[in-house]
Amino acid sequence: MRGPHNIWRLIRTAATMERTGAASVLLEAVEAPPALRMAARLLGWPFKWLGLKGDESLPPATRAITALGPAYIKFGQILSTRPDVVGPELAQQLKMLQDRLPPFPTAEARRIIGIDLGVSVEETFSEFSEPVAAASIAQVHRARLRETGQEVAVKVLRPGIAKAFRKDIDAFYLAATWMERLAPFSRRLRPTDVVAHFDSVVQAELDLRLESAAAAEFAANTGKDAGFRVPRPIWELSARQVMTLDWVEGMSLADTASIDAAGLDRQALAARVLQLFLSHALRDGYFHADMHQGNLKVDLQGEIIAYDFGIMGRLDEYTRRVYAEILFGFIKRDYRRVAEVHFEAGYVPADRDIDEFASALRVVGEPIFGMDATRISMARLLAYLFEVTERFGMETRTELILLQRTMVVVEGVARTLDPHINIWDVARPVVEDYIRSSIGPKAVVRDLMRTARVLSRFGPRLPAMADAALRRQAAEEERRFAPPRRPRNSGFMQMMGGGTLALAGVALGVCFAKFL
Fold this sequence. Notes:
It is built from 24 helices and ten strands. With 516 residues, the protein is an alpha+beta fold. Among the domains are: 5-99, no CATH class; 163-201; 259-459, no CATH class. A four-stranded antiparallel beta sheet has the order 1-2-3-5. Strands 4-9-8-6 form a four-stranded mixed beta sheet. The chain has a two-stranded antiparallel ribbon with strand order 7-10. Helix 4 packs antiparallel against helix 5, helix 5 (70-80) crosses helix 7 (88-94) and helix 17 (335-344) packs across helix 18 (354-370).
């Protein structure tokens, strides 16, 4: 419920960050300007005593994030994949947020399963383990079906998780609203729309029936992808709070020591993770949008296994083509074309200078091509990208948030496996293949054929539709040029006209009040 009580939650967030020491750790890690660090200190210090204490055995950032709750843990999971942004030490500390959070009691999980599935754990499973993984939304148990002996993974939502998320998101709405009111320059970032997008994503994640559907669709799309596997859901044992799917063994992609001990090629794995994401986004328009190491494993044969399908992204065909052209322009170092695509898609306002924008993009692209990945400061690069978006008045595109977020996470996972990876060289074959099949001459013919099929469905109705349109146009022109006629009851009509004007005035007043 949105309201003033959320001010308390925001104050407590700042106080917790200050009390645990997380604020200074995080701001230093991302190389925040001294002025921002001082502002954060001044805002948090007076309320420090109100902050949550957290688990004192944990490092400051992890301690604060786990104390604040699930919505903050989501943010921490993203940071855990980017040692090039927050540093290797902090990234390693935050990795526990991926799947090693404190679990809730197994007895409670059994109770939820009984209520949600309408069957007891003892009747359904011959074995049911303690939690083997626990994250912000749910925890996973290893089990064996009594009837068939099949090993399965049983995912159970945390008790009260929906209410906990609702509280956090309501506070985020309040913060976004005040940000837009007090800092007009922030409106181009559309903070309220971003929170609304996050809200919709979370609501889908809290219904495991939707995750089961996502897993089934993703498995169908990727069934022929070499070196990639998706566990399939067991529908009769899945419901809103419980999801059961195939058990698949593997090592976490974060466990580089075990991967090396198994004799697997980490460079090849890094390239495959990035190429699989691009293939799913461009080829299928449907991709896993939470690809941190806690949701990715690799078996002894080098096959990558994906888990947790609560957050999935979709791209329509037009957006996929725009995205591919932008990537291809960077790969070819054709910054002018990259700039043109941004303008054509409406990502940059039409009144800005396209050549200046192309020059700004060159500053982004050239260092990545000419320098070893280990020497690139991603924190500085991201700061510069933010400057570019501000300089050219670029607004946040909510339809691209999941894509951009996942790209950041996937690149971080790939860099963890292979710190020297060249993302452009790895991306090139996937993007070129999509360009050939979707933007070349064959694509033009295919688009024309699709258009013809649509028109053919409406073929029998086209003459009537055209005739109706022409009749409406003729009637409109007749009304426009016809001489005015004096009404018979002029007093009544004048009264109605005055009333209409009054209503129009009220309506205009309301509209202006909304914008002022």
